[in-house]
């Protein structure tokens, strides 16, 4: 649905030039929620603005729904943008228009007239759960309500894609969850493809089907959450399930097990202890529900050297678990059986 | 010297003030009309043709935007820097060309509008620059054309500030309209010069000052009320427009 290929974006020129995007390629499938995570300054804002060409890439191509946006004329681009709704961190609502007026702005631009505009704007406000606030001005709305108006406005032109620029970053945790649930609902009900950028791992955990990690303008890794979970040494997975510092006892083996799907339900550790008579200690664990499935990581300490524990580790891998042997904080070895 | 005790003094005063007020309102009103019609687009273009602005590259041609910006800046600075009393006299040939004469209230409209347009254009520039760039971005993301952004975002969102800026502009037009009275432009200014100054009638002078004060007060009150009405922020609209320097 969205295909970004070898995009570079440089601001300024000469010695003062800074590279915001450094050979970024991204594939977002139809109907999925794709999260780009990165810290501030990583280039997230630039990346999302490149998708609808609010920011024109210095080089590279952006293709949305089969249309190569980077080749369009300004007028064609304006029409293409109507297929791409966008919501913003600071809502960007017109202070002089009511909630309904703000939604109608989207329809006015597309050229929907009079009665149809009113009907449709109320319908969308109802969809985002704000039917009773149609006549309220943004100053009279809470942050969450403003973002609902923002989402309604983005949906006005019947887009196929929703871009979300840190849409929940200015909201409290509870409101964040309700907005994310709304995004998920829209994604399912309207079949909308969603690309969101965020610096909050919780956002990725809660709604994303796929994710990419952006750092210093480069994509470090990307893929579906499921496939990332089975990728050894995935930074994204490590940040999704933080286990803290490693403090192994000398002579012992520390392993990290990443599990997802069916393997999450099996009593893996108990089995391990029973079968091999091992005194397994749990150093840390993080378990989350991602996309309706349990997934997580556990850090275990096994007595003896890695060599001595080869059999139980092989057994774990045989069960389809991702097992990484960790030494002094670094991943020494990691592979899937 | 006019004697206030002479028969017919008070009816005469009333008559003169009535005509003077009418002329002042006429020339100020028409001048304001032209000021808005020309100054508003001028201000929008001043902001728009700046680097990164909406009209940075008219017809896709960047140098054109830069040239337009330079020319407009030059015109506005020129118009703002020439003292009104000089501008008024220097414009006489132009006024004669446009109106046919350079005497009377209609002729006075020309220099009034000429001095007020760049002034108001600056006010528009300030007001529009205050509009959050995120709003422009939001409109662009919806596929808005540049004119839609001007008409649906920039002007409506800066309306409160524009109204307050216009009020300041009108106040200085009233100020200048008194000056055209010195060169037979009519209005309350001429009343003050002819009767108050040349014929030593303190009553005329005081009456003119009171009348102009009332007009300005009413204008400011109306502007403040309108600005508040169009501002839908929770805080009451406050004037962020700089007070013009006295001339």
Automatic annotation (TrEMBL), chain A:
Name the domain of life this protein comes from. Answer: Bacteria
Alphabetically sorted, this entry's keywords are:
Amino-acid transport, ATP-binding, Cell membrane, Membrane, Nucleotide-binding, Translocase, Transport
Task performed by this protein: Part of the ABC transporter FtsEX involved in cellular division. Has ATPase activity.
- State the Gene Ontology terms under molecular function: ATP binding; ATP hydrolysis activity
Q: Does this UniProt record's set of keywords contain Transport?
A: yes
Q: What is this protein called?
A: ATP-binding cassette domain-containing protein
Q: Which family does it belong to?
A: Belongs to the ABC transporter superfamily.
Protein's UniProt keywords contain Ribonucleoprotein: no
A Gene Ontology biological process in which this protein takes part is: amino acid transport
InterPro entries, A to Z? AAA+_ATPase (IPR003593), ABC_transporter-like_ATP-bd (IPR003439), ABC_transporter-like_CS (IPR017871), ACT-like_dom_sf (IPR045865), MetN_ABC (IPR041701), MetN_ABC_transporter-like (IPR050086), NIL_domain (IPR018449), P-loop_NTPase (IPR027417)
- Which intervals hold domain ABC transporter? 2-241
Question: What is annotated about its quaternary structure and interactions?
Answer: Homodimer. Forms a membrane-associated complex with FtsX.
- One GO CC annotation, please? plasma membrane
Automatic annotation (TrEMBL), chain B:
Membrane as UniProt keyword: yes
Q: Which UniProt keywords apply?
A: Cell membrane, Membrane, Transmembrane, Transmembrane helix, Transport
Q: List the subcellular locations.
A: Cell membrane
**Residue ranges crossing the lipid bilayer per the database entry:** 25-47, 67-92, 98-121, 203-227
- Write down the membrane topology: Multi-pass membrane protein
Q: What's this protein's family per the entry?
A: Belongs to the binding-protein-dependent transport system permease family.
Instruction: State what protein this is by name.
Output: ABC transporter permease
Lineage of the organism: Bacteria, Bacillati, Actinomycetota, Actinomycetes, Micrococcales
